[in-house]
Amino acid sequence: MILVGCSAERIRNRAGDYLASGEYEKALDLIEKSEQSDPESAVLRAGSLQLRDQAVMQLLTRAGLERAAGRLDSAEKLLRRALPFDRSGDRVGAALAEVDAERRQRVALEKALELFDRDPSTALAIVQGALRENPSNRDLLSARQRLDAKLREGRLYGAATGLTESRPVTLDFRDVNLRLLLETITRNSGVNFVLDPDVGREIRVSIFMKSVRVEEAVEIIASTHGLAKKVLDERTILVYPNTPEKRREYQEQVVRIFHLSNSQAKDAAGFLRGMLKLREPYIDERTNFLALRETPENILLAERLLTLYDSAEPEVVLELEVIEVKATRLLNLGVKIPESITLTPLGPDGSTGSLTLGNIGSLGRSDVGLTLGSILLNLKREVGDYTTLATPKIRARSKEKAKILVGDKVPIVTTTTSTGGFVSDSVSYLDVGLKLEVQPTVYANNEVAMQVALEVSSVTREVQTAGGGLAYEISTRTAGTALRLRDGETQILAGLINREERSNASRIPGLGDLPIAGRLFSSQSDNNTRTELVLAITPRVVRNITVPDIGDSEIWIGTDSNTRLRTPVVPGQMTPPADAPGEPRLRNDLSEPLKVASSPSATTSESVAPHKQKETPDSTVALSWNGPRSAIVGESVALIVDADRTPQQDWSGTLSYDASKLELVNARELEALRSIGGRVNVTKEIVQGRGKAHINIYNVKSAQAQSQELTRLVSDADAGGRHLEIRFLARSAGKTAIEWVELGVSGSVDIQKPYAHSIEITP
């Protein structure tokens, strides 16, 4: 039995060695064969159970690490190796199911990211479906958060900014009825108008505007005639009287809760009330949030303002060095001769107490006692240097006091006796040592202003009071200053010097005053003490306020009576280049290069119908992308827009791209557009921060060219070719795509949008 037990232990140890080296299958095979040969061995059964459990745990741990690193295939292989060791299969089977679910979730995440810009609603539905299997997947949760933010931004911006139609229009109307004006704009732009019943039919408008967007023109018309507008969808505008009742009826309301991290909700509410005309915000001081119920425009403005307001308070680390240097020099040199001689008369028996008046007359030399002090030779020199060093570091918020005490609290006992004879003691404490108070103020340019107060005190001696208590004599040195330093700059405050010089001499009169020999008849002690206090202070800014650039800190909010988020007017941004001398004036109507006027010819069929009568049947122009599929950060990327045929009319489109990865630099015409005659102007309007740009192509021809090509909408001179060059700058690494989200051309020509052009940007 002993031999069998020893053999089982050896087998179990060998299996453990295989397990430690990662040879799980060998360990399992060895112990299973041993169990079959000796099924009654309790050692082998216990070893088998322990080996299986350890193997499963190790393989599950390794598989978890592979999953965390994103290597799902490797994790699945490890889990399948663990299956033979898990007899129930519950743990390993559950881990395999999680790997399969994660693989499906990754596929869903890739699909959602592909649809992120094109169809965020579908992408969100895909992400939410994938989260049902694993609600804690971080990547999916992050994608859902980004999609929610994108959809919310689209809803808010859609309500605040309105129409997708961005092509310019020229208006020239004099004393025309408002309804007739809006009808003419609809026929030439495709923008629909709905009028509230209370809009007066007698309203007449005089307006002359050149190269403006329809929405801006309607905004000006409404604001100058006591009206207001509301964008119902991408192509419909509602016009209603600008009265409080109508505003309450038509203006959309949004409830938004702002959780503040760095400022108090009541202070932020006061800030918003001072900047915007808002209803009273709801403030919850318990969780420090405020809630607004406002129009989408005011919500967007409040969000922009609170982003600037709720910034973290600056903090600074103060590195201090306090040095106290004390030097003592003591010199005691000379001969100390007795200062007095004492003569004592003695009585007959030799004592001092038995002397009588009769004995005084018989006193002699032997009856007088003499007391003479000892002669002391002083040869002493003491040198002492003491240094007290404290190097504290303290972190403080801007405009908050920071205090440092390095020392002791000395007890002061006060005894009080009452009228009844009751005695009580009270103890108070006095701070003694190094005490420093600093109040920093951190500025945006990383400079720190400080109010510094330094006090160094020490107990020089104890004083016994008449009542038996103890008092202390305290030596104190204080310094206070105000200074301003740059981040990392060290300032040394020195010069607090205390110097004491003491000289004591004991001399024999006359002899002790001799120049050289006087040292033999005197003893002199010279004691010099010098103490200097030095303070070095270095501020290091660990967090400062983020100063926004001018684009973020300057917000255009409309007029005092009509608050809205609007883009500042940039000179020349929407206006096409001026006509060259001798050419017709450039008229950028939405339908054709034709100025819409309020004269009879402008409002009858002669202004619109003649062009519709002369149009050819519908034609289709197919666009395609031509350009690189990869780029490096900082590199310029030129994409070519090709077309199978060239439109004769003005046309425009809206580009969508990731503004964090690409920056639109320029757009210009190429040879296919130049070949159709006349002059072609290409303008771009970039929507800052939203990854959108509006591209407009104006075909400016001479009068003769217009009359010759009036009936042609598509050029036969060039059946296709390179039309536009759109140049981007790669800003950050990642995969991105550029696509046309809106394309339009005047007349009956249709433009077929190409697929999105993807680009892989590497560091």
Automatic annotation (TrEMBL):
Composition bias type Basic and acidic residues, residue spans: 582-592
Gene Ontology terms: biological process: protein secretion
TPR repeats: 8-41
Keyword set includes Transport: yes
Subcellular location, record wording: Membrane
Major site of localization recorded for this protein: membrane
Native source organism of the sequence: Rubrivivax gelatinosus
UniProt keyword list: Cell outer membrane, Membrane, TPR repeat, Transport
Region (Disordered), start-end ranges: 564-625
Similarity comment: Belongs to the bacterial secretin family.
Pfam families listed in its UniProt record: Secretin (PF00263)
Gene3D superfamilies the record matches: 3.30.1370.120, Tetratricopeptide repeat domain (1.25.40.10)
Polar residues bias (residue ranges): 598-607
Residue ranges occupied by any Secretin/TonB short N-terminal domain in the UniProt entry: 191-242
Protein name: General secretion pathway protein D
GO terms for cellular component: outer membrane; type II protein secretion system complex
PROSITE patterns with a match to the protein in the record: TPR (PS50005)
